[in-house]
Amino acid sequence: MIKKELCKIISQEEIANDIFQLTVSADFVNEINAPGQFVHIKVGKGLDPLLRRPISISSVDKRNSQFTMIYRKEGKGTTLLAEKGPGMLLDILGPLGNGFPVNEVKPEETALLVGGGIGVPPLYELSKQLTSKGVKVIHVLGFQTESAVFYEKEFLEYGNTYIATVDGSYGKKGFVTDIIKELEFDCLYTCGPTPMLKAIEKQYSHKKVFLSLEERMGCGVGACFACVCKTSNELEDVSYKKVCSDGPVFRAGEVLI
Ligand SMILES: Cc1cc2nc3c(=O)[nH]c(=O)nc-3n(C[C@H](O)[C@H](O)[C@H](O)COP(=O)(O)OP(=O)(O)OC[C@H]3O[C@@H](n4cnc5c(N)ncnc54)[C@H](O)[C@@H]3O)c2cc1C
Ligand code: FES
Questions:
Q1: Which of 76, 77, 132, 133 gets the most CB atoms within 10 Å of its CB?
Q2: Domains and CATH numbers, the chain
Q3: What is the ipTM of this complex?
């Protein structure tokens, strides 16, 4: 069930250039049922900014009723969020959306997890859950440059981890798509910029692929239609899915990206 809660900030730390790791305590952690779900955060006090900001859940600690998010300080909302510190309260709506289906891959099979930039965080909880089921996991993570790289050590704990940077300052120079060409897998899960998702969808139309989409959001709960995208099997009638409540994770080919 979706809840709105005032969550206490446990810690907030800058883990790479303009990349923040934020841990909060929340009663609704028990409602989180899949990696890749997200929350909607009210970052300001009054009506400015009016809209909540969607941020993915990157790891869950049910025993201590806490969860962690990782976000990039970008515009007004995330800049306000980065100013908050331990002990402060954050108005959070969650958990939202449908996450990655972990049962699509069997124990002993191989899952390839491909993340780009700020699409990397939800793959961390996914990797933890897949490896605990006995699935072999390979990570391919892409960033702009060395100062933006985060969580390499954390992902390495769960499986092979390849890093690509666009400028070649760390790992392999280029895009994640250059690395994944050489890898074998049974199921691919990905989250990141739309051009990356499109390239992966095209490259692996014959494989089992799940994509997490980002769309601008209003309500986050399926009521305002701000986040709709077209389904790909339209005949004469146009049909739509809502990224916030039908997604953000879709099977490749289910919606037009
Ligand atoms: C399901 C989902 C999960 C996300 N998870 C993460 C995450 O884990 N870490 C992270 O850093 N970012 C994540 N994002 C993107 C994040 O929501 C935006 O970067 C953030 O809202 C920007 O807010 P801002 O005020 O700093 O920027 P501004 O550009 O000032 O925001 C202005 C408005 O645009 C909207 N907006 C801007 N960029 C985006 C975007 N890419 N997607 C959706 N709305 C946008 C904001 O919500 C706001 O309403 C996620 C987005 C979605 C939809
Ligand atoms: S954000 Fe309102 S319907 Fe998706």
A1: 77
A2: 3-96 (2.40.30.10), 102-212 (3.40.50.80), 214-257 (2.10.240.10)
A3: 0.95
